[in-house]
Design brief:
Length: about 450
Amino acid sequence: MTTTAQAGAALPVAAEAQLDAFGTDPWWITLIKALVIFVFLMVCVLMMIMADRKVMGRMQQRHGPNRLGPLGLLQSLADGVKLSLKEDLIPRGVDRTVYIAAPVIAAVPAFIAFSVIPIGPEVTMFGVQTPLQLTDLPIAALVVLATAAVGVYGIVLGGWASQSPYALLGGLRASAQVISYEIAMGLSFVAVFMYSGTLTTSGIVEAQRPVWFALILLPSFLIYIVTMIGETNRLPFDLAEGEGELVGGFMTEYGSMKFTMFFLAEYVNMVTVAAVSVTFFLGGYLAPPPLTMFWAGANDGWWPALWWLLKFLLMMFLFIWVRGSVPRIRYDQLMQLGWKVLIPVQLVWITAVAFVRILVNEGAPTGVVAAVVAGFAAATVAFLVAWARAARRRRRAEAAERREELRLMREDPAYGGFPVPPPSAPHYGSSVPAEGPRYAPRAPDDKREEVTGA
């Protein structure tokens, strides 16, 4: 078995050899692959909506859908049919062209991104040797990032074309959120590119045969999990839809089939980013290492598709688990997490990974590389401890300041400029006499008579 460094050095040639397997399939094989991907995504959307409601119901000690179909499994299909048959209303004053095109712009890129996801190695399909992947490109990894960036245009344009303040604010939130979290997501891929030596998705999977990138690039994997939830506008990052303050966010003015398209785009995006996490960090279609120790054929034939599916379902369950466990954060906390935590941590991490890769490629002794990694880990732990202590001191100072403000407010009702009348001010309509002049109740002729106090 080759080492990780040797695998990374040999990957560019191997990636070119793997790309030769694409573009030679008969047209009907390509059509079957595209149809299977479309059906798989649609079924995943229906099943994910049902799992979302059923699993969260169990987490909240309730049942969830259980009436339509066996165990309520047809409820998602019935909801889709109901939405499609609703009357399609277009509000007055909207930009009709952009308003109608926005849901399509949000949904289509999510389908395109799945075309470069490898689900298995080369297999025999109807007598034709073909890889279980629609296509692959020399820059396939960048296609995933590009489609994710294009998809947000549908959300932004939908909010702008609705001519509604709530929808516009939701679109602006979505754009700011995607910009901040797209940067962190792209940086998490950089470490993968450095270790795999290629941008092809099939080459990235093959580079993980020695060890999965989720283990050796754990910080990148954890940050990607956070960013993929932020990219899909799911709880706790669904600030673009925030029902508590924006009614429905960018979808406020949408209904019927157009609302269904936005809903479909959100769940297809979830499927896509979960598949990307499996491809880039969890070994793709490769079997777990303990399984390959006693089963030599675990990565042959159609079995890899099963391993890919199991990893994919695990990542999809993570979406539901986070939604049912973590409350929605404030918008300022969302921006601070993206710009002040994720991006700086990624920059430092990528610098360390690049330094280690240079040492490995230059043939540095293993002890030197281990010492560098240990020193970096110790420096990181020391920094995190110092940062946690500083944050604790800051929170204590803020709490003390709030307590002092509350004390001043109790002692002086007018503290902070609050318009509280002084105790000797006239009290209209009160039977308790006050010192100084006061006003009697309004006279029938709508004039007030000044009365001298006792």
